[in-house]
Amino acid sequence: MQQQNQTGQQQNQMFQANQMSPQGQTGGQTGQGIMNQPPSMVSTKDLLYLTDMLSWNLNAAKKAHFFAEHCTIPEIKTTIENACKMHERHYNRILAHLNNQQTYM
Fold first, then answer.
1. According to the UniProt record, where is the region Disordered (predicted)?
2. Is the pTM above the cut of 0.85?
């Protein structure tokens, strides 16, 4: 039991050490893949992923809107409309982040 406790403490200390960023580092990537700032340039892979996220959210919002228009049960219609609004918010948030990044370049 005591050995398990010591092992748990050691793992916790290793986790905390990995989470701390080195002193004196300004921006960019630190130790274990944690970024303090986004990169100044988007890679092709990241761009494709962002495009996919925008497409997924737009498609989900359109489908939810379509189903909400054709739904006759008020409670379900409200739930589907809320899902539509959520996907619209996600789409707009991603777009806003991208537009904010453009102003810095």
1. 1-39
2. no
